[in-house]
Amino acid sequence: MSKIYITTAIPYVNGTPHIGHSIDYLLADVFYRYHIKLGDEVRFQSGTDEHGNKVFSKAKDSGMDVRDYAKQNSQKFKEFISILEVKPTDFIRTTDEDHERRCQEIWKKLEKHIYKSSYEGWYCEGCENFVTQKERDENNGICPDHQKAYQKLSEENYYLRISDFKDKIIDAIESGKLPVLPDFRRREMLELLKDAPDVSISRPAKSLSWGVPVPNDDSQVMYVWIDALSNYITVLGYPDNDISDYWPATAQFVGKDILRFHTIIWPAMLLGLGLPLPKTICSHGHILSNGQKMSKSLGNVVDPVEVINKHGIEAFRYYFLRHIDTFVDSDFTWDKFEGAYNNELANDLGNLVQRLATLASKNNIVIELNQNKSIKKDKEYNELMHSFEFSKAFNYVWEKVQQINKDIDEKKPWELAKSGTKEEVFDCLNTLINDLLYANALLEPFLPGTAEKITEIFALNKKIIPPKTPLFPKSF
Ligand code: MSP
């Protein structure tokens, strides 16, 4: 039994959850459920990132007090996580008092790597990120992700001396001590690190009032990313508590757009605090619609709650964990979703369960375990899960489901029922159902609700009753 710590990025509360937010949660949840199944002790963090100008401006636009606004949206993220059947053990809000106080302690511990200097340059409020002149020029003054002009900043800030840590971080990533996935992103990060400048880690309080105050300097507020990144350890109680049971994290899940913060500022902070680096940083791609970014102006935004309300959470999890590649950008379109629902979930799996349950019921089969296959011994599955290739692991499970369908067609148990002995019929159906139960065990981290139903239908030592409604009824 190991102690495992899994984290997700914490979304800004400047809006409500959208489909893209699902990915961090679902990937982390699969890894969480997988480790629970292996018998590990797991802590799984999630939460909301509530400070910064982006949130402050949106609260102002909506005419609400920023605290109320942040609370209301944080609650929506919490509800969304629960709709996804994702079950973090810890949920942190960066406006929690303990978090804010701990961030100030962290700042004090980093003080010897911090200096004050003036900043003249550009900032994107959408990314909450400082950008170089070169980057601004390359993008013609407009942030490509947010389609907003960069703001010109000229102010006194505190800086974190990245140069104190740069070589160590590069070495950790190159030597594999700090694994960054996938490999092409790891290489991108190494390129960025070569020229990484010191980073500004505060803003004057007059430009940014909504944030954690810098200790012993009322005129400055912490840069939102310092506050946000700290959440991964403040949620464990750092620096009040010894966190060595769960830190370093086993896996930190983040989107590709925020990987740079996790491979430059975050490791620098950890090294400055004398804490070990995470065991893996796993970055996922983005969800697109017909190859394009989802945006309100293009009218191609898909509301995740609409998908779930119409077709169920299991179908949602299925599409996003199997058809959205774990590491690269992938498409959600209604056509693809419908195809996956009808051909794969309803046909491959739903029908298989119905057919086997009906055959077993007609032939009075009471299941006996006829194999001692265990998830722990499934080398291919475990290798894929440990290397975070979740969509490939899901394909592997699905191949097993399809193989059982082929086996039924080949063995034709309905013919055997007419011509064979009772024993032959039992052996045939018992083997097929055992195969299904094994595939079902592998399926559980991905589709926990479906797996539970299948386990109930084919319970051992009990008469099988076929479900009255199919597992995946027609919903299109
Ligand atoms: N608040 C920061 C994260 C701080 S972590 C210490 C932030 N928030 S965010 O709301 O913009 O994004 C939250 C997560 O959602 C990130 O991992 C981001 O990559 C992910 N996604 C946002 N849009 C996405 C898609 N369209 N597709 C997939 N993931 C996307 O960044």
List the helices and strands and how they pair.
Elements: E1 3-8, H1 22-37, E2 41-48, H2 53-61, H3 66-83, E3 90-93, H4 97-109, E4 114-124, E5 129-131, H5 133-138, E6 142-143, E7 148-149, E8 151-160, H6 166-175, E9 180-181, H7 183-194, E10 199-200, E11 202-204, E12 220-222, H8 224-234, E13 251-255, H9 259-273, E14 281-284, E15 287-289, E16 292-293, H10 304-311, H11 313-323, E17 330-331, H12 334-362, H13 379-386, H14 390-411, H15 413-419, H16 422-443, H17 448-457
Parallel strand pairs: 1-2, 1-13, 2-3, 9-14, 13-14, 15-17
Antiparallel strand pairs: 4-5, 4-8, 6-7, 8-10, 11-12, 15-16
Helix pairs in contact: 4-8, 6-7, 7-9, 8-9, 10-11, 11-12, 12-16, 13-14, 14-16, 16-17
Bound molecules: 5'-O-[(L-methionyl)-sulphamoyl]adenosine (MSP).
The site of 5'-O-[(L-methionyl)-sulphamoyl]adenosine has 18 residues, from α1, α8 and β13.
Structure description:
By secondary structure, this protein is α/β, with parallel strands linked by helices. The protein has a domain at 333-457: Isoleucyl-tRNA Synthetase, Domain 1, CATH 1.10.730. It has helices at residues 22-37, 53-61, 66-83, 97-109, 133-138, 166-175, 183-194, 224-234, 259-273, 304-311, 313-323, 334-362, 379-386, 390-411, 413-419, 422-443, 448-457, and strands at 3-8, 41-48, 90-93, 114-124, 129-131, 142-143, 148-149, 151-160, 180-181, 199-200, 202-204, 220-222, 251-255, 281-284, 287-289, 292-293, 330-331. A 6-stranded parallel beta sheet has the order 3-2-1-13-14-9, with helices on both faces. A 4-stranded antiparallel beta sheet has the order 5-4-8-10. Strand 15 (287-289) and strand 16 form a beta hairpin. Helix 12 (334-362) runs antiparallel to helix 16 (422-443), helix 14 runs antiparallel to helix 16 and helix 16 runs antiparallel to helix 17. It starts with a strand and ends in a 19-residue tail after the last helix. The model has no long low-confidence stretch (mean pLDDT 95). The structure holds 5'-O-[(L-methionyl)-sulphamoyl]adenosine. 5'-O-[(L-methionyl)-sulphamoyl]adenosine binds at residues 9-12, 20-21, 23-24, 49, 228-229, 231, 254-255, 257-258, 286-287.
